[in-house]
Specification:
Helix content: 40-55%
Radius of gyration: 16 Å
Oligomer: single chain
Distance between the termini: 18 Å
Number of domains: 1
Shape: globular
Number of strands: 4
Largest sheet: 4 strands, parallel
Length: 154
Amino acid sequence: MSPRKIEQNLDGKGLGIAVVTARFNGYITDQMTALVVTRLIELGVASDDIVVSQIPGAFELGLTARRLAERGDIDAVICIGAVIRGDTDHYEFVARAATEGIARAGDDSGKPVIFGVLTTDNTDDAVVRIGHASGYADAAVEMANTMRQIHELA
């Protein structure tokens, strides 16, 4: 008897995906959101099945992600933010809160919550990483399908 294998699946057809975007540093996060939505559609997620929510900043990502993940029509949530180091400790607090909140949202909901928060020392480093955002869409679709396959194994 061979083991049952969970296969990588990047077919977004039939999936509901939420994208939560921090408006703070919007000149970066707006571009990231556009890349994510474009990639989700390329993967077969219907535009009607994509929910985009803009919120004040990265600190609020975890709570919003958790509430969206609780919806029955959402299979995964992508959190987008950009926290850029400044001259105060504020960066450390916001980056930590975003990280912990996003992780907790996934754990509490049992649904994939993708960490798409750039934490960089300067704006130039953040701009260079904007293109990574399309990979967040891939991760959301793959993980949503992985969760479905795990459920089907039960």
